[in-house]
TrEMBL record:
Gene3D superfamilies: 2.40.50.100. It comes from Phocaeicola sartorii. GO terms for cellular component: cytosol; glycine cleavage complex. The keyword Cell membrane does not apply. PROSITE patterns: BIOTINYL_LIPOYL (PS50968), LIPOYL (PS00189). This is Glycine cleavage system H protein. Belongs to the GcvH family. CDD domains: GCS_H. The gene is gcvH.
Length: 126
């Protein structure tokens, strides 16, 4: 299982990687492993400004649908269009090609309140 150090993590198993004034958001390797084969990703919030921990979409596996929570407040700029035809990218490459959305955080410093790789690893290994 991967725990990249260039991203921050939430207790709900989302990750965020800030690049300049844009941030990528996805689900963690642990989350995709627990969910199983992802069959659909629904992001109806593109263009909306949401608060931290608000639901920005859902991820569907064979037997269940799970909510996706925004790690920091900000505007949802774009969803990963590649997931429409290939939702399994989230399973194959959760920190790369399987990203879910790009956001413009209201305050990029908010990511400092999230878990680093070691803290997240400790959380999932409890």
């Amino acid at each position: 299982m991967e725990f990249p150090s260039n991203v921050k993590y939430t207790k709900e198993h989302e990750w965020i990687r800030v690049e300049g004034d844009i941030a990528y958001v996805g689900i963690t390797d642990y989350a995709q492993e627990q969910l199983g084969d992802i069959v659909f990703v629904d992001i109806p919030t593109e263009g909306e400004t949401l608060e931290k921990e608000e639901v920005f979409g859902t991820i569907e596996v064979v037997k269940t649908i799970s909510d996706l929570f925004l790690p920091v407040s900000g505007e949802v700029l774009e969803q990963n269009e590649a997931l429409a035809d290939n939702p399994e990218l989230v399973n194959k490459d959760p920190y790369g090609e399987g990203w879910l959305i790009k956001i413009k955080p209201n305050d990029a410093n908010d990511v400092n309140d999230l878990l680093d790789a070691e803290a997240y690893k400790a959380l999932v290994n409890e």
